[in-house]
Amino acid sequence: MIAGACFGVLWMGAMATMPAALGAAVEAMVRRDRAALIGWSSALLAIGILQAAAGVMRHRRAVTNFLVAAVRVQQLVARQAARLGGELIRTVDAGEVANFGSNDVERISRAYDVTARLAGAIVSYIAVAVLLLVRSPELGLVVVLGVPVSVAAIAPIMRPLERRQTVERERRADASSLAADTVVGLRVLRGLGGEAVFAERFNASSQHVRAAAVSTALAQANLDGLQVLLPGALLVAVTWLGARLVVSGRVTPGELVAYYAYAAFLVIPLRTFTEAVAKWTAALVGADRVLTLLRREPPLADGHGASEPGVGPLVDSTTGLSIEPGLLTAVVPTDPEEAERLVQRLGRYADPDDAQRIVTLAGVSLAELPISTVRRRILIVGREPVLLAGTLAEALNPPRSSIPRVDTVPISVAAALDAASATDIVDGLPEGLDTEIPERGRTLSGGQRQRIVLAAAFLADPDVLILDEPTSAVDSYTEAAIADRMVVLRAGRTTVVVTTSPVMLERADRVVFLARKVKAVGLHRDLLHGDPDYRSVVTRGVPLGS
Length: 546
What we know:
Layout: H1 2-31, H2 34-84, H3 86-91, H4 94-113, H5 115-135, H6 137-184, H7 186-192, H8 195-247, H9 253-294, E1 314-316, E2 321-323, E3 328-333, H10 336-346, E4 359-361, E5 364-365, H11 371-377, E6 378-381, E7 390-391, H12 392-396, H13 413-419, H14 423-428, E8 436-437, H15 446-460, E9 464-468, H16 476-489, E10 494-498, H17 502-507, E11 510-515, E12 517-522, H18 524-530, H19 532-539
Parallel strand pairs: 3-10, 3-11, 6-9, 9-10
Antiparallel strand pairs: 1-2, 1-4, 4-5, 7-8, 11-12
Helix pairs in contact: 1-2, 1-5, 1-9, 2-4, 4-6, 4-9, 5-6, 5-9, 6-8, 6-9, 8-9, 13-15, 13-16, 18-19
Protein backbone atom coordinates (compact mmCIF):
# COMPACT_ATOMS: atom_id res chain seq x y z
CA MET A 1 0.00 0.00 0.00
CA ILE A 2 2.83 2.42 0.89
CA ALA A 3 4.74 1.58 -2.28
CA GLY A 4 1.61 2.07 -4.37
CA ALA A 5 0.93 5.44 -2.73
CA CYS A 6 4.53 6.59 -3.35
CA PHE A 7 4.42 5.62 -7.01
CA GLY A 8 0.96 7.21 -7.26
CA VAL A 9 2.31 10.51 -5.91
CA LEU A 10 5.30 10.37 -8.27
CA TRP A 11 3.08 9.49 -11.24
CA MET A 12 0.47 12.18 -10.71
CA GLY A 13 3.08 14.65 -9.43
CA ALA A 14 4.94 14.32 -12.73
CA MET A 15 1.65 14.89 -14.54
CA ALA A 16 1.03 18.00 -12.42
CA THR A 17 4.38 19.57 -13.37
CA MET A 18 3.71 19.27 -17.10
CA PRO A 19 1.49 22.41 -17.31
CA ALA A 20 4.31 24.55 -15.82
CA ALA A 21 6.85 23.18 -18.32
CA LEU A 22 4.35 23.56 -21.15
CA GLY A 23 3.61 27.18 -20.18
CA ALA A 24 7.32 27.96 -20.01
CA ALA A 25 7.84 26.42 -23.45
CA VAL A 26 5.05 28.59 -24.89
CA GLU A 27 6.66 31.69 -23.30
CA ALA A 28 9.96 30.72 -24.95
CA MET A 29 8.19 30.50 -28.31
CA VAL A 30 6.62 33.93 -27.78
CA ARG A 31 10.07 35.35 -26.96
CA ARG A 32 11.65 33.36 -29.84
CA ASP A 33 14.17 31.96 -27.37
CA ARG A 34 15.40 28.83 -29.19
CA ALA A 35 17.62 27.55 -26.36
CA ALA A 36 14.89 27.93 -23.74
CA LEU A 37 12.39 26.20 -26.03
CA ILE A 38 14.74 23.23 -26.51
CA GLY A 39 15.40 23.11 -22.77
CA TRP A 40 11.74 23.14 -21.75
CA SER A 41 10.85 20.64 -24.49
CA SER A 42 13.54 18.33 -23.15
CA ALA A 43 12.12 18.83 -19.66
CA LEU A 44 8.68 17.85 -20.95
CA LEU A 45 10.16 14.68 -22.47
CA ALA A 46 11.91 13.77 -19.21
CA ILE A 47 8.73 14.42 -17.21
CA GLY A 48 6.78 12.23 -19.63
CA ILE A 49 9.25 9.36 -19.25
CA LEU A 50 9.16 9.71 -15.46
CA GLN A 51 5.35 9.73 -15.51
CA ALA A 52 5.22 6.62 -17.71
CA ALA A 53 7.67 4.68 -15.52
CA ALA A 54 5.96 5.71 -12.28
CA GLY A 55 2.57 4.91 -13.83
CA VAL A 56 3.68 1.36 -14.68
CA MET A 57 4.98 0.76 -11.14
CA ARG A 58 1.89 2.35 -9.60
CA HIS A 59 -0.36 0.11 -11.67
CA ARG A 60 1.63 -3.01 -10.72
CA ARG A 61 1.30 -2.14 -7.04
CA ALA A 62 -2.41 -1.37 -7.41
CA VAL A 63 -3.10 -4.71 -9.12
CA THR A 64 -1.05 -6.53 -6.47
CA ASN A 65 -3.01 -4.81 -3.70
CA PHE A 66 -6.28 -5.73 -5.42
CA LEU A 67 -5.31 -9.40 -5.75
CA VAL A 68 -3.82 -9.71 -2.27
CA ALA A 69 -6.91 -8.12 -0.71
CA ALA A 70 -9.17 -10.47 -2.69
CA VAL A 71 -7.21 -13.57 -1.68
CA ARG A 72 -7.01 -12.51 1.98
CA VAL A 73 -10.76 -11.94 2.21
CA GLN A 74 -11.43 -15.27 0.51
CA GLN A 75 -9.08 -16.97 2.98
CA LEU A 76 -10.85 -15.32 5.93
CA VAL A 77 -14.26 -16.39 4.63
CA ALA A 78 -13.08 -19.96 3.91
CA ARG A 79 -11.38 -20.25 7.32
CA GLN A 80 -14.46 -18.97 9.10
CA ALA A 81 -16.68 -21.33 7.12
CA ALA A 82 -14.47 -24.25 8.20
CA ARG A 83 -14.48 -22.96 11.79
CA LEU A 84 -18.28 -22.73 11.90
CA GLY A 85 -18.64 -26.19 10.35
CA GLY A 86 -22.20 -27.48 10.35
CA GLU A 87 -23.42 -24.26 12.01
CA LEU A 88 -22.70 -22.39 8.76
CA ILE A 89 -25.43 -24.07 6.71
CA ARG A 90 -27.93 -23.51 9.51
CA THR A 91 -27.33 -19.76 9.62
CA VAL A 92 -26.19 -18.71 6.13
CA ASP A 93 -27.69 -19.64 2.77
CA ALA A 94 -25.50 -21.24 0.12
CA GLY A 95 -26.04 -18.26 -2.19
CA GLU A 96 -24.93 -15.92 0.57
CA VAL A 97 -21.62 -17.76 0.93
CA ALA A 98 -21.15 -17.66 -2.84
CA ASN A 99 -21.64 -13.88 -2.79
CA PHE A 100 -19.09 -13.55 0.00
CA GLY A 101 -16.51 -15.17 -2.25
CA SER A 102 -17.32 -13.24 -5.43
CA ASN A 103 -19.23 -9.94 -5.32
CA ASP A 104 -18.14 -8.84 -1.85
CA VAL A 105 -14.52 -9.78 -2.43
CA GLU A 106 -14.38 -7.72 -5.63
CA ARG A 107 -15.99 -4.69 -3.98
CA ILE A 108 -13.59 -4.77 -1.04
CA SER A 109 -10.57 -5.29 -3.28
CA ARG A 110 -11.38 -2.32 -5.51
CA ALA A 111 -11.14 -0.04 -2.49
CA TYR A 112 -7.47 -1.08 -2.24
CA ASP A 113 -6.95 -0.68 -5.97
CA VAL A 114 -7.94 3.01 -6.00
CA THR A 115 -5.82 4.11 -3.02
CA ALA A 116 -2.56 4.47 -5.00
CA ARG A 117 -4.18 6.93 -7.40
CA LEU A 118 -5.99 8.67 -4.56
CA ALA A 119 -2.70 9.39 -2.77
CA GLY A 120 -1.32 10.98 -5.94
CA ALA A 121 -4.54 12.92 -6.48
CA ILE A 122 -4.48 14.44 -2.99
CA VAL A 123 -0.82 15.49 -3.09
CA SER A 124 -0.95 16.86 -6.64
CA TYR A 125 -4.20 18.74 -6.00
CA ILE A 126 -2.74 20.49 -2.96
CA ALA A 127 0.49 21.35 -4.84
CA VAL A 128 -1.35 22.76 -7.88
CA ALA A 129 -3.81 24.71 -5.72
CA VAL A 130 -0.96 26.39 -3.76
CA LEU A 131 0.90 27.19 -6.99
CA LEU A 132 -2.17 28.76 -8.59
CA LEU A 133 -3.00 30.79 -5.48
CA VAL A 134 0.53 32.22 -5.45
CA ARG A 135 0.70 33.05 -9.17
CA SER A 136 -2.92 34.12 -9.73
CA PRO A 137 -5.21 34.43 -6.68
CA GLU A 138 -8.36 34.69 -8.84
CA LEU A 139 -7.71 31.53 -10.81
CA GLY A 140 -6.35 29.81 -7.71
CA LEU A 141 -9.54 30.50 -5.76
CA VAL A 142 -11.69 29.17 -8.60
CA VAL A 143 -9.71 25.95 -8.64
CA VAL A 144 -9.31 25.59 -4.87
CA LEU A 145 -12.99 26.21 -4.20
CA GLY A 146 -14.33 24.53 -7.33
CA VAL A 147 -12.94 21.07 -6.63
CA PRO A 148 -14.36 20.69 -3.09
CA VAL A 149 -17.70 22.09 -4.23
CA SER A 150 -17.78 19.57 -7.07
CA VAL A 151 -17.03 16.69 -4.68
CA ALA A 152 -19.63 17.95 -2.21
CA ALA A 153 -22.23 18.11 -5.01
CA ILE A 154 -21.74 14.39 -5.57
CA ALA A 155 -22.13 13.46 -1.89
CA PRO A 156 -26.00 13.38 -1.89
CA ILE A 157 -25.90 10.61 -4.49
CA MET A 158 -23.64 8.35 -2.42
CA ARG A 159 -26.12 7.40 0.32
CA PRO A 160 -28.89 6.29 -2.09
CA LEU A 161 -26.26 4.44 -4.12
CA GLU A 162 -25.09 2.57 -1.03
CA ARG A 163 -28.67 1.63 -0.10
CA ARG A 164 -29.40 0.40 -3.61
CA GLN A 165 -26.18 -1.61 -3.71
CA THR A 166 -27.17 -3.25 -0.42
CA VAL A 167 -30.61 -4.19 -1.76
CA GLU A 168 -29.11 -5.52 -5.00
CA ARG A 169 -26.58 -7.57 -3.07
CA GLU A 170 -29.30 -9.15 -0.90
CA ARG A 171 -31.47 -10.00 -3.89
CA ARG A 172 -28.54 -11.55 -5.73
CA ALA A 173 -27.88 -13.72 -2.67
CA ASP A 174 -31.54 -14.80 -2.61
CA ALA A 175 -31.44 -15.75 -6.29
CA SER A 176 -28.15 -17.61 -5.86
CA SER A 177 -29.54 -19.55 -2.88
CA LEU A 178 -32.64 -20.51 -4.87
CA ALA A 179 -30.49 -21.72 -7.76
CA ALA A 180 -28.16 -23.67 -5.44
CA ASP A 181 -31.08 -25.37 -3.68
CA THR A 182 -32.63 -26.28 -7.00
CA VAL A 183 -29.45 -27.87 -8.35
CA VAL A 184 -29.27 -30.04 -5.23
CA GLY A 185 -32.90 -31.11 -5.54
CA LEU A 186 -33.14 -31.28 -9.32
CA ARG A 187 -33.93 -34.98 -9.40
CA VAL A 188 -36.73 -34.54 -6.91
CA LEU A 189 -38.10 -31.58 -8.87
CA ARG A 190 -38.19 -33.62 -12.05
CA GLY A 191 -39.73 -36.58 -10.28
CA LEU A 192 -42.54 -34.39 -8.97
CA GLY A 193 -42.89 -32.43 -12.20
CA GLY A 194 -41.93 -29.24 -10.42
CA GLU A 195 -39.75 -27.65 -13.11
CA ALA A 196 -42.45 -25.16 -14.06
CA VAL A 197 -42.94 -24.08 -10.44
CA PHE A 198 -39.21 -23.57 -10.01
CA ALA A 199 -38.92 -21.70 -13.31
CA GLU A 200 -41.66 -19.32 -12.18
CA ARG A 201 -40.00 -18.76 -8.80
CA PHE A 202 -36.56 -18.26 -10.31
CA ASN A 203 -37.96 -15.91 -12.94
CA ALA A 204 -39.59 -13.80 -10.21
CA SER A 205 -36.36 -13.77 -8.20
CA SER A 206 -34.37 -12.83 -11.32
CA GLN A 207 -36.74 -9.95 -12.02
CA HIS A 208 -36.19 -8.67 -8.49
CA VAL A 209 -32.44 -8.79 -9.10
CA ARG A 210 -32.88 -7.02 -12.43
CA ALA A 211 -34.99 -4.25 -10.86
CA ALA A 212 -32.44 -3.77 -8.07
CA ALA A 213 -29.57 -3.75 -10.58
CA VAL A 214 -31.33 -1.15 -12.77
CA SER A 215 -31.99 1.01 -9.71
CA THR A 216 -28.32 0.77 -8.73
CA ALA A 217 -27.20 1.46 -12.29
CA LEU A 218 -29.38 4.58 -12.41
CA ALA A 219 -27.68 6.01 -9.33
CA GLN A 220 -24.29 5.00 -10.73
CA ALA A 221 -25.12 6.65 -14.08
CA ASN A 222 -26.01 9.89 -12.30
CA LEU A 223 -22.70 9.70 -10.46
CA ASP A 224 -20.77 9.04 -13.67
CA GLY A 225 -22.54 11.94 -15.39
CA LEU A 226 -21.63 14.33 -12.59
CA GLN A 227 -18.04 13.10 -12.75
CA VAL A 228 -17.92 14.46 -16.31
CA LEU A 229 -20.19 17.50 -15.90
CA LEU A 230 -18.65 19.09 -12.82
CA PRO A 231 -14.99 18.89 -13.87
CA GLY A 232 -16.02 20.13 -17.31
CA ALA A 233 -17.82 23.10 -15.78
CA LEU A 234 -14.74 23.88 -13.68
CA LEU A 235 -12.54 23.69 -16.78
CA VAL A 236 -14.85 26.08 -18.66
CA ALA A 237 -14.81 28.53 -15.73
CA VAL A 238 -11.02 28.53 -15.54
CA THR A 239 -10.67 28.99 -19.31
CA TRP A 240 -13.16 31.87 -19.37
CA LEU A 241 -11.54 33.66 -16.43
CA GLY A 242 -8.02 33.07 -17.76
CA ALA A 243 -8.96 34.49 -21.17
CA ARG A 244 -10.27 37.68 -19.53
CA LEU A 245 -7.04 38.02 -17.55
CA VAL A 246 -4.99 37.65 -20.75
CA VAL A 247 -7.06 40.31 -22.50
CA SER A 248 -6.55 42.66 -19.54
CA GLY A 249 -2.81 42.03 -19.68
CA ARG A 250 -2.59 40.57 -16.17
CA VAL A 251 -1.66 37.13 -17.44
CA THR A 252 0.70 36.18 -20.29
CA PRO A 253 -0.31 33.73 -23.04
CA GLY A 254 2.12 31.17 -21.66
CA GLU A 255 0.59 31.47 -18.21
CA LEU A 256 -2.90 31.07 -19.69
CA VAL A 257 -1.80 27.85 -21.40
CA ALA A 258 -0.37 26.64 -18.09
CA TYR A 259 -3.56 27.56 -16.19
CA TYR A 260 -5.73 25.85 -18.78
CA ALA A 261 -3.53 22.76 -18.59
CA TYR A 262 -3.73 22.88 -14.78
CA ALA A 263 -7.51 23.03 -14.95
CA ALA A 264 -7.57 20.12 -17.42
CA PHE A 265 -5.20 18.18 -15.17
CA LEU A 266 -7.34 18.80 -12.09
CA VAL A 267 -10.14 16.88 -13.77
CA ILE A 268 -8.10 13.73 -13.08
CA PRO A 269 -7.79 14.24 -9.27
CA LEU A 270 -11.45 15.25 -9.11
CA ARG A 271 -12.61 12.12 -10.89
CA THR A 272 -10.28 10.07 -8.72
CA PHE A 273 -11.87 11.58 -5.59
CA THR A 274 -15.38 10.71 -6.75
CA GLU A 275 -14.29 7.27 -7.95
CA ALA A 276 -12.72 6.58 -4.55
CA VAL A 277 -15.92 7.62 -2.79
CA ALA A 278 -17.99 5.34 -5.03
CA LYS A 279 -15.67 2.35 -4.61
CA TRP A 280 -15.34 2.80 -0.86
CA THR A 281 -19.12 3.02 -0.58
CA ALA A 282 -19.48 -0.30 -2.41
CA ALA A 283 -16.62 -1.76 -0.35
CA LEU A 284 -18.34 -0.81 2.89
CA VAL A 285 -21.46 -2.69 1.78
CA GLY A 286 -19.39 -5.79 1.00
CA ALA A 287 -17.26 -5.49 4.13
CA ASP A 288 -20.33 -5.19 6.34
CA ARG A 289 -21.68 -8.46 4.93
CA VAL A 290 -18.35 -10.25 5.32
CA LEU A 291 -17.99 -8.99 8.89
CA THR A 292 -21.45 -10.35 9.64
CA LEU A 293 -20.09 -13.79 8.81
CA LEU A 294 -16.76 -13.27 10.59
CA ARG A 295 -18.49 -12.17 13.80
CA ARG A 296 -20.38 -15.45 14.10
CA GLU A 297 -19.09 -17.74 16.80
CA PRO A 298 -19.25 -21.54 16.71
CA PRO A 299 -21.98 -22.84 19.02
CA LEU A 300 -19.47 -25.16 20.72
CA ALA A 301 -16.64 -23.82 22.83
CA ASP A 302 -13.24 -25.38 22.19
CA GLY A 303 -11.95 -27.19 25.26
CA HIS A 304 -8.32 -26.90 26.34
CA GLY A 305 -8.17 -28.25 29.87
CA ALA A 306 -7.94 -32.03 29.54
CA SER A 307 -5.09 -34.23 28.40
CA GLU A 308 -5.49 -36.77 25.62
CA PRO A 309 -7.82 -39.55 26.87
CA GLY A 310 -6.77 -43.16 26.65
CA VAL A 311 -8.87 -46.13 25.59
CA GLY A 312 -12.15 -46.32 27.45
CA PRO A 313 -15.92 -46.26 27.17
CA LEU A 314 -17.85 -43.47 25.46
CA VAL A 315 -20.64 -42.52 27.88
CA ASP A 316 -23.69 -40.29 27.39
CA SER A 317 -25.05 -39.30 30.80
CA THR A 318 -28.29 -37.98 29.27
CA THR A 319 -29.48 -41.45 28.26
CA GLY A 320 -27.14 -43.58 30.37
CA LEU A 321 -25.66 -45.12 27.22
CA SER A 322 -22.16 -46.59 27.62
CA ILE A 323 -20.25 -47.68 24.52
CA GLU A 324 -17.67 -50.27 25.51
CA PRO A 325 -14.33 -50.14 23.69
CA GLY A 326 -13.49 -52.77 21.11
CA LEU A 327 -17.09 -53.94 20.56
CA LEU A 328 -19.68 -53.55 17.82
CA THR A 329 -22.59 -51.92 19.63
CA ALA A 330 -26.00 -51.51 18.02
CA VAL A 331 -28.35 -48.84 19.35
CA VAL A 332 -32.07 -49.35 18.67
CA PRO A 333 -34.01 -46.10 19.22
CA THR A 334 -37.76 -45.72 19.58
CA ASP A 335 -37.55 -42.12 18.35
CA PRO A 336 -35.38 -41.33 15.27
CA GLU A 337 -35.08 -37.66 16.27
CA GLU A 338 -33.87 -38.63 19.73
CA ALA A 339 -31.36 -40.96 18.07
CA GLU A 340 -30.07 -38.14 15.89
CA ARG A 341 -29.61 -35.90 18.94
CA LEU A 342 -27.72 -38.74 20.64
CA VAL A 343 -25.36 -39.09 17.66
CA GLN A 344 -24.76 -35.34 17.65
CA ARG A 345 -23.85 -35.45 21.34
CA LEU A 346 -21.56 -38.48 21.00
CA GLY A 347 -19.57 -36.73 18.26
CA ARG A 348 -19.83 -33.36 20.03
CA TYR A 349 -21.63 -31.62 17.25
CA ALA A 350 -23.98 -30.54 20.04
CA ASP A 351 -23.71 -30.40 23.81
CA PRO A 352 -26.33 -31.90 26.16
CA ASP A 353 -29.30 -29.61 26.81
CA ASP A 354 -28.81 -29.97 30.54
CA ALA A 355 -25.57 -28.34 31.70
CA GLN A 356 -25.25 -31.03 34.37
CA ARG A 357 -25.13 -33.75 31.72
CA ILE A 358 -21.89 -34.61 29.91
CA VAL A 359 -20.46 -37.00 27.36
CA THR A 360 -17.16 -38.62 28.34
CA LEU A 361 -14.50 -40.63 26.53
CA ALA A 362 -12.39 -42.78 28.87
CA GLY A 363 -13.66 -40.68 31.76
CA VAL A 364 -12.74 -37.31 30.15
CA SER A 365 -15.52 -34.91 29.20
CA LEU A 366 -15.63 -34.16 25.48
CA ALA A 367 -16.31 -30.50 26.34
CA GLU A 368 -12.86 -30.30 27.94
CA LEU A 369 -11.07 -31.61 24.85
CA PRO A 370 -10.09 -29.57 21.78
CA ILE A 371 -12.70 -30.10 19.08
CA SER A 372 -9.91 -31.20 16.72
CA THR A 373 -9.11 -34.05 19.14
CA VAL A 374 -12.76 -35.11 19.30
CA ARG A 375 -13.00 -35.10 15.50
CA ARG A 376 -9.84 -37.18 15.25
CA ARG A 377 -10.94 -39.77 17.80
CA ILE A 378 -14.66 -40.00 16.97
CA LEU A 379 -16.02 -40.17 13.43
CA ILE A 380 -19.72 -39.92 12.59
CA VAL A 381 -21.31 -41.04 9.34
CA GLY A 382 -24.79 -39.52 9.17
CA ARG A 383 -27.95 -40.67 7.48
CA GLU A 384 -27.43 -38.46 4.43
CA PRO A 385 -23.78 -38.92 3.36
CA VAL A 386 -22.21 -36.12 1.33
CA LEU A 387 -19.43 -36.46 -1.24
CA LEU A 388 -17.35 -33.45 -2.24
CA ALA A 389 -16.36 -32.82 -5.85
CA GLY A 390 -13.11 -34.48 -6.94
CA THR A 391 -11.80 -37.89 -7.86
CA LEU A 392 -13.14 -40.97 -6.15
CA ALA A 393 -9.69 -41.58 -4.68
CA GLU A 394 -9.81 -38.13 -3.03
CA ALA A 395 -13.27 -38.87 -1.64
CA LEU A 396 -12.07 -42.16 -0.18
CA ASN A 397 -8.78 -41.01 1.28
CA PRO A 398 -9.09 -37.66 3.09
CA PRO A 399 -6.52 -36.76 5.80
CA ARG A 400 -6.49 -39.56 8.35
CA SER A 401 -8.62 -38.91 11.41
CA SER A 402 -7.05 -41.29 13.92
CA ILE A 403 -3.98 -41.42 16.12
CA PRO A 404 -1.25 -43.57 14.55
CA ARG A 405 -1.70 -47.08 15.92
CA VAL A 406 0.99 -49.56 16.84
CA ASP A 407 -1.33 -52.48 17.56
CA THR A 408 -3.15 -52.59 14.21
CA VAL A 409 -2.20 -52.59 10.56
CA PRO A 410 -3.47 -49.57 8.53
CA ILE A 411 -6.51 -50.41 6.44
CA SER A 412 -5.96 -50.44 2.68
CA VAL A 413 -8.25 -48.85 0.11
CA ALA A 414 -9.05 -52.27 -1.32
CA ALA A 415 -9.99 -53.65 2.11
CA ALA A 416 -12.18 -50.64 2.88
CA LEU A 417 -13.97 -50.90 -0.46
CA ASP A 418 -14.51 -54.63 0.02
CA ALA A 419 -15.89 -54.16 3.54
CA ALA A 420 -18.33 -51.53 2.26
CA SER A 421 -19.28 -53.79 -0.68
CA ALA A 422 -18.21 -50.95 -2.99
CA THR A 423 -15.64 -52.68 -5.17
CA ASP A 424 -18.20 -53.11 -7.96
CA ILE A 425 -18.82 -49.35 -7.97
CA VAL A 426 -15.14 -48.64 -8.68
CA ASP A 427 -14.98 -51.41 -11.30
CA GLY A 428 -17.97 -49.93 -13.10
CA LEU A 429 -16.52 -46.42 -13.39
CA PRO A 430 -14.65 -45.53 -16.60
CA GLU A 431 -11.43 -44.45 -14.86
CA GLY A 432 -11.79 -46.38 -11.62
CA LEU A 433 -10.52 -44.44 -8.61
CA ASP A 434 -9.43 -41.57 -10.88
CA THR A 435 -13.01 -40.93 -12.04
CA GLU A 436 -14.16 -37.38 -11.31
CA ILE A 437 -17.17 -37.25 -9.01
CA PRO A 438 -19.30 -34.07 -9.22
CA GLU A 439 -20.48 -32.13 -6.19
CA ARG A 440 -22.51 -34.24 -3.74
CA GLY A 441 -21.83 -37.30 -5.90
CA ARG A 442 -24.83 -36.56 -8.11
CA THR A 443 -23.82 -39.16 -10.70
CA LEU A 444 -24.05 -41.94 -8.11
CA SER A 445 -27.22 -43.49 -6.70
CA GLY A 446 -28.12 -43.11 -3.04
CA GLY A 447 -26.93 -46.62 -2.24
CA GLN A 448 -23.63 -46.08 -4.09
CA ARG A 449 -22.97 -42.82 -2.22
CA GLN A 450 -23.74 -44.55 1.06
CA ARG A 451 -21.27 -47.35 0.34
CA ILE A 452 -18.50 -44.99 -0.83
CA VAL A 453 -18.83 -42.85 2.31
CA LEU A 454 -18.84 -46.02 4.43
CA ALA A 455 -15.62 -47.14 2.73
CA ALA A 456 -14.05 -43.75 3.44
CA ALA A 457 -15.06 -44.10 7.12
CA PHE A 458 -13.45 -47.57 7.30
CA LEU A 459 -10.30 -46.21 5.66
CA ALA A 460 -10.11 -43.34 8.16
CA ASP A 461 -9.96 -45.96 10.94
CA PRO A 462 -11.03 -43.77 13.89
CA ASP A 463 -10.95 -44.90 17.51
CA VAL A 464 -14.74 -44.70 17.63
CA LEU A 465 -16.84 -45.03 14.48
CA ILE A 466 -20.52 -44.08 14.80
CA LEU A 467 -22.81 -45.05 11.90
CA ASP A 468 -26.36 -43.70 11.76
CA GLU A 469 -28.50 -46.02 9.58
CA PRO A 470 -25.50 -46.80 7.32
CA THR A 471 -27.33 -49.26 5.04
CA SER A 472 -30.75 -47.65 4.65
CA ALA A 473 -30.31 -47.19 0.88
CA VAL A 474 -28.97 -50.65 -0.03
CA ASP A 475 -30.73 -53.96 -0.62
CA SER A 476 -30.82 -56.70 2.03
CA TYR A 477 -28.23 -58.89 0.28
CA THR A 478 -25.70 -56.02 0.15
CA GLU A 479 -26.57 -55.04 3.70
CA ALA A 480 -25.78 -58.56 4.95
CA ALA A 481 -22.45 -58.54 3.08
CA ILE A 482 -21.53 -55.17 4.61
CA ALA A 483 -22.48 -56.34 8.10
CA ASP A 484 -20.38 -59.50 7.86
CA ARG A 485 -17.33 -57.74 6.45
CA MET A 486 -17.59 -54.83 8.88
CA VAL A 487 -17.43 -57.25 11.83
CA VAL A 488 -14.16 -58.63 10.48
CA LEU A 489 -12.62 -55.29 9.46
CA ARG A 490 -13.52 -53.46 12.69
CA ALA A 491 -12.62 -56.33 15.00
CA GLY A 492 -11.09 -54.92 18.19
CA ARG A 493 -12.22 -51.41 17.27
CA THR A 494 -15.12 -49.49 18.79
CA THR A 495 -18.05 -49.30 16.40
CA VAL A 496 -21.56 -47.99 17.04
CA VAL A 497 -24.44 -48.60 14.62
CA VAL A 498 -27.73 -46.77 15.16
CA THR A 499 -30.25 -48.98 13.37
CA THR A 500 -33.40 -51.07 13.58
CA SER A 501 -32.28 -53.47 10.86
CA PRO A 502 -32.28 -57.12 12.05
CA VAL A 503 -29.43 -57.83 9.63
CA MET A 504 -27.15 -55.45 11.50
CA LEU A 505 -28.52 -56.29 14.93
CA GLU A 506 -27.77 -59.99 14.54
CA ARG A 507 -24.04 -59.23 14.06
CA ALA A 508 -23.72 -56.86 17.01
CA ASP A 509 -21.72 -57.85 20.09
CA ARG A 510 -24.10 -55.79 22.17
CA VAL A 511 -27.52 -54.27 21.51
CA VAL A 512 -28.84 -51.27 23.47
CA PHE A 513 -32.56 -50.56 23.36
CA LEU A 514 -33.12 -46.82 23.82
CA ALA A 515 -36.41 -45.23 24.85
CA ARG A 516 -35.22 -41.79 26.00
CA LYS A 517 -33.09 -43.73 28.49
CA VAL A 518 -31.38 -47.09 28.17
CA LYS A 519 -34.18 -49.57 28.64
CA ALA A 520 -32.48 -52.88 27.88
CA VAL A 521 -29.04 -54.24 26.97
CA GLY A 522 -28.22 -57.67 25.54
CA LEU A 523 -28.00 -59.71 22.37
CA HIS A 524 -30.50 -59.24 19.57
CA ARG A 525 -32.07 -62.69 19.85
CA ASP A 526 -32.50 -62.37 23.64
CA LEU A 527 -34.10 -58.93 23.44
CA LEU A 528 -36.28 -60.03 20.52
CA HIS A 529 -37.89 -62.74 22.63
CA GLY A 530 -37.68 -61.07 26.03
CA ASP A 531 -38.76 -57.44 25.40
CA PRO A 532 -42.10 -56.81 23.61
CA ASP A 533 -41.32 -53.12 23.05
CA TYR A 534 -38.00 -53.96 21.44
CA ARG A 535 -39.68 -56.59 19.29
CA SER A 536 -42.32 -54.12 18.18
CA VAL A 537 -39.69 -51.57 17.09
CA VAL A 538 -37.47 -54.05 15.26
CA THR A 539 -40.24 -56.03 13.53
CA ARG A 540 -42.45 -52.95 13.07
CA GLY A 541 -45.35 -54.75 14.70
CA VAL A 542 -45.09 -57.87 12.54
CA PRO A 543 -45.36 -61.06 14.69
CA LEU A 544 -42.33 -63.32 14.80
CA GLY A 545 -42.41 -66.06 12.17
CA SER A 546 -44.69 -64.07 9.83
